[in-house]
Design brief:
The structure is a single chain. By secondary structure, this protein is mainly alpha-helical. The chain is built from 10 helices and 2 strands. The chain has a two-stranded antiparallel ribbon. The two termini are 30 Å apart.
């Protein structure tokens, strides 16, 4: 499955171009390390696989370069960026400020439709089993974060956090086989989603901060 497979049926996500679709597909592969750090990005192969022309894929790759997920070298090609663990502190510093802001804003301003969507998501997340495939559990984690950012109603904040969460997820993927408690980490989101649905800004912010801090702590324990 992909992150987009967890989307709620009937939700209008707007008009998606081929470049948008290519961006989402390639981005997820980079974030989940299906395209390993340092691997080349093969425009032709991806174009053929997706059934698109090369132009949408090239547009997508340009966006991914701005996201610092790929890097282009003259006369050599484009490659997936390395996962630099020294970035953990920088990423966490920003997420500790902005993630609670997004959660509190969602609790304060989310529409009734968004609250219903988050409530259903909370019920779904609570059913995650310890024996579930860690990679699928992690994909659900990414989806939960995206839905919270979306519910905040601030597209600029949403985009910044999607980018940061992508880099954090790449770090997570490096250690996935050494993290036995991924399921419970993701199940934590159920209480957070319920706080947002209830309009409890303080609880939403506090639970989010604890979640981001816990992520950093678990990774550092393995370094």
């Amino acid at each position: 499955m992909t992150v987009s497979d967890y989307s709620t049926d009937g939700v209008d996500l707007g008009v998606e171009t081929n470049a948008d679709r290519a961006y989402e597909v390639i981005r997820e592969r980079l974030v989940m390390l299906d395209i390993r750090p340092g691997e080349p990005i093969n425009d032709d192969r991806i174009s053929s696989e997706l059934g698109f022309g090369r132009t949408p894929v090239r547009e997508a790759v340009k966006r991914l370069e701005r996201d610092r997920l790929v890097v282009a070298y003259p006369r050599r090609g484009t490659f997936a960026t390395a996962v630099d663990l020294t970035d953990l502190a920088d990423i966490s510093e920003i997420r500790k400020q902005l993630e609670p802001t997004a959660a509190a804003r969602a609790a304060r301003t989310a529409s009734a439709e968004a609250r219903a969507r988050l409530e259903a998501l909370a019920r779904s997340i609570a059913t995650i089993d310890d024996g579930d495939d860690p990679r699928e559990v992690l994909r659900r984690d990414v989806y939960v974060h995206r839905e919270i950012y979306r519910a905040s109603g601030n597209p600029h904040l949403e985009q910044i956090l999607i980018t940061l969460d992508g880099h954090a997820t790449r770090i997570w993927c490096l250690f996935l086989d050494r993290l036995p408690d991924v399921a419970s980490h993701v199940r934590e989101h159920a209480a957070l989603l319920e706080a947002i649905v209830a309009g409890d800004e303080t609880a939403a912010a506090d639970l989010t901060l604890a979640h981001v801090t816990g992520f950093e702590r678990e990774i550092r324990a393995l370094l």
